[in-house]
Structure formats: C-alpha cells, structure tokens
Amino acid sequence: MLKPIRFVPRNAKLPIIRSRLLAFVLSTILVIGSLVAVATIGLNFGIDFKGGILMEVRTSAPANIAQMRADLGGLGLGEVSLQEFGDEHEVLIRIQRQEGDEAAQIKATDAVRAALGEGVEYRRTEFVGPTVGQELIEAGALAVGLALLSILLYVWFRFEWQFGVGAIVALAHDIVSTLGLFAVIQHEFNLATVAAVLTIAGYSINDTVVIYDRVRENLRKYKKMPLADLFELSVNETLSRTTLTSGTTLLALVAIYLFGGAVLADFALAMIWGIVIGTYSSVFIAVPLLLYTGLRRGEDEPSEDVAVPEYERAEREG
Questions:
Q1: Whole-prediction pTM value?
Q2: For residues 13 and 193, what is the distance between their CA atoms, to the nearest angstrom?
Q3: At what angle do helices 191-221 and 161-185 cross, to 10 degrees?
Q4: Measured in Å, how far apart are the chain's first and last C-alpha atoms?
C-alpha cells in the first residue's frame, strides 16, 4: 500500500516562533521597501484608473508587433503600448487618453484603424475618462479598507481582540508588499489587480484563522505550557495543511499566469505573490505577534498536565 506524500513531516518541530525576530526584521525591511517604492517609483496605473483607449484586435496573419508599433508610433497619439495575448493573432492596444472630449477619442481610434489597414478584426474598443478613473481609484481603496475592517471585526468576535490585531497586521503586511512588488516591476495595476488584492486578503485570513483555531484549542488543552512553546506547537501541527493548500493553489495560478494570456497575467502574478507572502505572514507574523499582545488563556477549562512539549524538553536537556 502506497504511503501518502507529505511535504511536511507529521510531527514537524520547526523553530518558527524562536525565529520570530529574524522574521520581524525581514518583514520590516520588506514593508518599508515597498512603501518607499510606491512613494518614489509609483504604481503603473492601467487605463482603468488613469483613463485612455483600449482596443483588442485580431489579425488574419500572425501579428507583426514591431511593425504595428512603428505604424502607430508615428500617429502622434502619445503613449501607445501593444501586447500580444492569447495567440499570435491577437493584440491588445493601449493608448493614452487624448486631449479633448469623446470626439477626440473617436478620432484617435479612427487613426489607428487607418494605420493598421485591412485584415484586422476589432473585437473590443473601450474609452475610460479621467473622472471615472479617479472614482475607480477611490472605490478600490475603499473596498480594500472595508475588507480589512470587516476581517478585523470578524476575527475579533470569533476569537479575542489580540487575535484581530495579529491578523490585521499580517494582512496589511501582505497588501503593502504586493503594492511594492507592482511598483518595482512596473506591471500594470488595474481593476483585476485590485480584485487580486482582495482575494489575497481573504486567502491569507483563511490560513491565519486555521492556525488561530489550533492556538485557541491548545490554550484550553495545555494550561501550564509556556505561550511560546504552545504557539510553536500549534503552528507545526497545522503546517502540513497550510503548505498543501498553498501548493495546490499555486499550481493553478502558475498555469493561469503562463497560459491565460495578457488579460489574466497581472491578476495571476498578484495572486501568486499573495499566496506565498500570505502563507509566510500567517505563520511567521500573525502567530508570533500574539506573544506581545498580552494574550491570556482561560482558567475555567479542563487541561492536560503538560508544561513543555516533549521535543522541547529533550532539546533543553540535551
């Protein structure tokens, strides 16, 4: 009979809580670096936010991106970007918003059609104005803020306020680092990316709540065990589940990133980074922070008379 594959041993004894200071230093550097990148480099907002023209075209022959870029570059339309997606016949054209009203935008699309000539099928043409773009930025920021507040309240009511603090710090860590990544690599930040950020928050809190559940269970079970040892035991007991869930999700996201085309690439990239950083923060940030929040264990529950886990005792005696 075949034995199940385990990426993490059943009785893992990784020194996660004992390594918390190193994790805190690395996370602080990551967050500060991300904030500096967003403030200095800035996000590469897509047409959704800064306004412009988006055209999706399909050519009868394999698209010559270089030639198309040369043809459109001479039209005097400002910033023009072309990106192949789907297959070699499909091209996404982004043009900065033209000065003037809707007539100016229509004139620009007509110029593009004339420059590309025959043999091109125009599947989609969209216009986004600057007012709408600003409203979308505000709506996106509001959505993220309300999501964080809702998660904080949920964790607070389900557990205790100390758990809510740990969860919200870990989530803020994930979101800020994702924004920093997009600022550094200058991938387009659009509505799909905002959706990815919200999904990251939901996924990360799911991991955190699973570990917190085990922490709460062990708080009732081991009354005499030092909190640091108890947290380490709880994390190690849930580590296999955490890594397997994250690993299988990453397999699907990598496939989307590689084969899903340009429309889904930025969303998939944000999700891949979010899954990795979210798993890290749930283990190395959310739980260790409980040591500094004055968390108390209930005294009215039956407990097991265990002061220190066996592997910790052996290490200390050795």
A1: 0.72
A2: 37
A3: 150
A4: 37
